[in-house]
Structure formats: C-alpha cells, structure tokens
Specification:
477 residues; mainly beta; 5 helices; 10% helix; globular
C-alpha cells in the first residue's frame, strides 16, 4: 500500500522540484526557515561529532593561471591543475599551500589533491568537469564494494580526487564545481557505459578534511563521497542536480568516522545524505563502519528519494548517528532505511530530533526487503541488525503515509522509538511488519507494534550524545 501511495502522489504531481534556487538564498527560503550559518569559518564545538576548527592559513599560495590555465570554458586545463598540485606538494612540510582559482570557467578533467592543501574558489570561479570520457580514467573498485557500484570491474575516477591525505580543504567565496553530468546521465540511460560513473568529489583513506562555502552542481554520480575517512567537516555547501538525474546523491559518508555535516542545502535526483559502509560480503570482510556522524541544520528536496538515508550499502555497520534540525520538502521520503538479506551489518544508536517535513510521500520508510547484490558471492543468511533508533519532535504537512516499516521475520526491526510526532496524513497512516518499538504523543497513532510505552525511560528518549547540547550552546551564542 505504501508503494501505491507513492505512485499516486507522483502522478498527481505533488512533488515539484525547484532546483534552480540561488545558493545565496538556501538558508532563508520560506519552506525551511533556516537561520544563516554562523560566521567565522568554525563549526559548532560538537564533541563526539566533530572538533572545532578554523581554516588553516597557508603560507604559500599560487593561482591556477600561473600554470597556464585559461578560464574561457573551452580550453581544457587538466594539465595545469595537475602541474599546480604537483608543485604545491613541495610545501607540505612548510605549512602547506593554497591553489587559488579566480573568476572564470575552468574546464578540466580529473585531478588529485594532496596533503596540507587548500583549493580555494573565488566568487565567480567555476570548475567545469570535462565531458570527454578519457579525462576521467578508470581506477580499481573500492575493496568494501568489490566492484563498481553500477557495473562490474573498476570505475571512473572522480573529478576531484585524493587518497591517503591529511589536512585538505576545499573552500572559497561560494565558487562552483560543476560536473556537467548530463552526458553521463545520457550514457547511463542508454546503457553505453563500460564502467561505473565517477563522483564529483571522492576522498579516500584521508583525515582532517574540510569542505565549505562551495556550490556543487550536476555530478555524474554521487556528489561528495568521503570513504574510509575520519574527521570530516562539510559545512555551508549547496548541492544541486535536476530531479531526473539518476542516482545523484548529495553527501555520502561511507565507512567513515567523526563526520560533521551542517548548514547545507541539497536538491538532487536521489538521497540528499546517505550514510553507507560497504556492500554485502565485501563490506562485511572490509569491516569498517560509519560511526560518530552528526548532521545539523540541513534542508533540501529529492522528488525521487529521501532526505536522510541509511544504506542500502551498510554491511560494515552504521552506529552513533545524531541528526538535528533537518527540513525535507517535496520528497519521496523523510528518513529512509534500506537493507536486506545478504547485507549483514547493523544500524544502531541513531538519534533524530527536530525534523520538519513538507509534501513528503512517506515520512519514515524503513525496509529490509531492498535488493541488489554485487555478485553471487553474498551470503543470504547474513541478516542486518536494525535496532535502537530514536525519533522525536517531528512536524509534517501534506504527508502521504506516516510510516512504512518492513523488517525481516528472522531479523525484525527492534527498539524503534517515536515521541512527539505530529503528521498531517493524507493517503494512509502506518503499515508495519516485523517491527517492534515504543511511542508516545504520536499522531496519527502508530501501528500496534509501535504503540507501546517505554517503561524504564532509559533507552528511547534520553540524549544519546553531548553533540546536541554542544550544538544548542553554539547556536544560542
């Protein structure tokens, strides 16, 4: 019934994307009423989620024009970016360096970042991804995936890439990184690609990463993908892609820890934020969870998918995720869990509060019936464990279904906790199977499996981390 409701909603045209919104207005748009980001370039001091930091002052700086780059949108500058960063490597032990990108349209293929580097985009600067397939070389698959996400074998490298780095910053005065992904979307639909599409930004096995004050547009595939990373701050970014763009996630922390995402606006063709940790037996064997993830003050829309998602690739485990002050409009679902038999792994200790939903087909869409496997080597007996999810202080208008919960008979969802949830529901209320939990002050009344009161008061609705209190103190300062 939930799927039927979604189809009806889409046919009626309730979901209308407004992708072209100016990034300068993303925090003041009337749909979300978000306060402007805090000034000074430092995040909230949220222990357990991210540490307070200021952008490093690099003692050395060069312009991309110093290496012969031309910002006319036509001349390819791949070699200029590669040479500039190769030169700046020599300053890694001298306080690091900055690569300055001035106003202009700088067409380039893929290039790799390096440690102790700041990539700074001036206002009016646009880095354009080349639409030449050869400018995006093929690299090996991630070990936690075992193959490309869309096709067997390797995958195309991201436009901006890096591995085994420390102290990397991508920032600016609201410059833009545009992947020009439309050709990739056509190749995907026409099934003419031999390898999985590349991301716009992918950082691997790296730590102390900051991405801020930049607009990202039209990624070929997932937009920002930190994988096997730690100590990641993504703040005050705008991510845009048309609603018809296939599988264009916004931000996907993957097998990463100590990640802070805050003060962002995202409008894409897939999940706004999706927390991942590897795919089936490959993710299980690699064994690197996503943990200690804090999401605060994020808004956006995805007519085809979710505001915040978990999975579907979650085989290495996901835990200790703290989500506060999220606004989702014109979307298929608000919070979504995607998993299935063969995934293994776990999703546990998730705390969500202050969630506002507008024109959303399913507020809470949790399924353990999600398919898709990398190969025949997965173990169907590897069952996911989903338990310990607290959701409170939720308001929703024009909601199709309050909740669709489908666990496995052999591995039901447990300890799902809802409190102070008020949803204006049209098509239906709740549909639950193999799901157990607790609720209080929930409208419409949840399914019987959730319509129980927590007796000891200990698990469901206590503060799970000092993260929320630190954010509250920061925002009131």
């Amino acid at each position: 019934m939930c799927v039927l409701s979604i189809l009806i909603v889409l046919l009626l045209g309730r979901v209308e994307a407004s992708v072209g919104r100016s990034p300068r207005h993303r925090h003041t748009h009337q749909e979300f009423s978000l306060r402007a980001p805090h000034g000074g370039g430092s995040p909230a001091p949220a222990p357990g989620c991210c540490s307070p930091r200021s952008l490093p002052k690099r003692p050395h700086s060069v312009s991309i024009t110093d290496f012969g780059a031309v910002g006319d949108g036509r001349i390819v500058n791949t070699l200029a970016f590669q040479n500039a960063i190769f030169y700046l490597k020599s300053f890694a032990d001298k306080g690091g360096a900055q690569l300055y990108v001035p106003r202009g349209r700088w067409l380039t293929g893929s290039f790799n970042l390096t440690s102790h580097l700041t990539l700074f985009l001036e206002e009016g600067a646009v880095i354009l991804g080349s639409q030449d397939l050869l400018e995006w070389p093929v690299i090996p698959a991630l070990p936690s995936y075992g193959r490309g996400r869309e096709l067997p074998g390797g995958r195309h490298i991201s436009l901006i890439h890096g591995k085994n780095m420390v102290d990397v910053v991508i920032t600016g005065a609201n410059g833009t990184i545009d992947g020009q992904g439309s050709v990739w979307w056509d190749w995907f639909h026409n099934k003419t690609l031999d390898f999985t599409r590349g991301h716009l930004v992918e950082l691997i096995d790296s730590r102390h990463i900051t991405i801020s004050n930049v607009t990202f547009k039209n990624s070929p595939f997932w937009t920002i993908h930190p994988v096997y990373c730690s100590d990641v701050l993504i703040q005050d970014v705008t991510i845009l892609a048309p609603p018809y763009a296939p599988n264009i996630d916004g931000i996907d922390p993957d097998s990463s820890s100590n990640v802070c995402i805050r003060d962002c606006y995202i409008s894409t063709g897939d999940d706004l934020i999706s927390i991942k940790s590897g795919w089936d037996e490959h993710g299980i064997n690699y064994g690197m969870p996503s943990t200690n993830v804090c999401i605060h003050n994020v808004s956006g829309q995805s007519p085809t998918s979710a505001g915040i998602a978990f999975g579907s690739e979650m085989s290495g485990g996901i835990s200790d995720v703290f989500i506060k002050s999220v606004r989702v409009a014109n979307s298929r679902s608000g919070i979504r869990i995607k998993t299935g038999a063969g995934r293994g792994g776990y999703i546990t200790n998730i705390s969500i509060s202050d969630l506002q939903l507008e024109n959303v087909s399913v507020a809470f869409d949790f399924t353990a019936l999600y398919g898709g496997h990398p190969d025949d080597g997965y173990d169907p007996r590897a069952l996911p464990v989903i338990r310990g999810i607290s959701i409170r202080d939720v308001v929703g208008h024009e909601i199709g279904w309050a909740g669709c919960m489908a666990g496995l008979e052999e591995a039901p969802f447990r300890d799902l906790c809802f409190a102070n949830v008020s949803l204006s529901v049209g098509a239906g209320a709740w549909n639950c199977s193999n799901t157990y939990g607790f609720s209080e002050r929930v409208v419409p009344s949840p399914c019987l499996e959730l319509d129980r009161k927590q007796q000891d008061g200990g698990f469901c609705f206590g503060e799970a981390s000092s993260c929320f209190e630190a954010i509250r103190q920061y925002d009131s300062s």
